[in-house]
Design brief:
alpha+beta; 2 domains; 4-stranded antiparallel beta sheet; 6 helices; 45% helix
Length: 211
């Protein structure tokens, strides 16, 4: 990733995630302050705290001039921008690259936002299409919510603009053999800490609950 990095995440899900973690901390404190702490309940509380973090706080998009990184609940997918064939934000972000489909829950649009963007988005209705085909991509607005569009459409067009720039820089056409070569640079990394905490806390809960 270079210095010109943009990060996008769903602010509403982050708020719910923070609330969820705060509640689990309160429950954990109550459990630990009892005379005979139910450690099975404590393990379950840790599990739900890790679940809130993984599902609501961890998902995020990172975008620079060369790569799009999808940090999902339990994996991180890094895609070269020149490998991306199409992208759209519906209920979730959907990206096609190397004949494979990648999704991210970090960004999404409600049906109301989709309808509004289709009628009045800066792309002339293109934002409502299921998949935006490259190239011929619109220039993304400089700020989210410009021209009464949704944050999801802003992110979609920002990614599409960066993809168009990457294709032009490499001198290749969309859906070409040259573009397929860049798909070899797609990587997927498991979220080891989150997987470890979720697995360990759940196993401990089951073991203690059966004792």
């Amino acid at each position: 990733m270079d210095d010109d990095v943009q990060r996008f995440s769903n602010t509403s899900s982050r708020a719910f995630g923070i609330i969820g973690i705060v509640l689990t901390v309160v429950v954990a404190i109550q459990i630990l302050t009892t005379d005979d702490p139910p450690y099975a309940g404590l393990a379950l509380t840790v599990f739900f705290a890790a679940l809130a973090w993984s599902a609501m706080l961890r998902p995020q998009l990172s975008l620079d001039s060369s790569r799009l990184v999808l940090r999902n609940m339990l994996t991180t997918v890094s895609l070269p921008l020149a490998a991306i064939e199409s992208v759209a934000v519906r209920q979730v972000l959907v990206v096609f690259a190397g004949d494979r489909r990648y999704t991210s829950s970090a960004i999404g649009r409600t049906r109301r936002q989709l309808h509004r963007d289709e009628r009045g988005g800066p792309s002339g209705g293109g934002g409502g299409a299921m998949m935006g085909i490259l190239p011929n991509l619109p220039t993304a607005p400089e700020k989210p919510e410009t021209a009464k569009t949704s944050y999801g459409l802003f992110v979609e067009e920002r990614i599409r603009s960066r993809v168009a720039d990457a294709l032009a820089r490499e001198g290749i056409k969309a859906r070409s053999a040259q573009q397929e070569r860049f798909a070899e640079g797609i990587s997927r990394t498991p979220a080891v800490p989150e997987i470890a905490v979720l697995s360990a806390s759940f196993v401990v809960f089951v073991v203690l609950a059966l004792v």
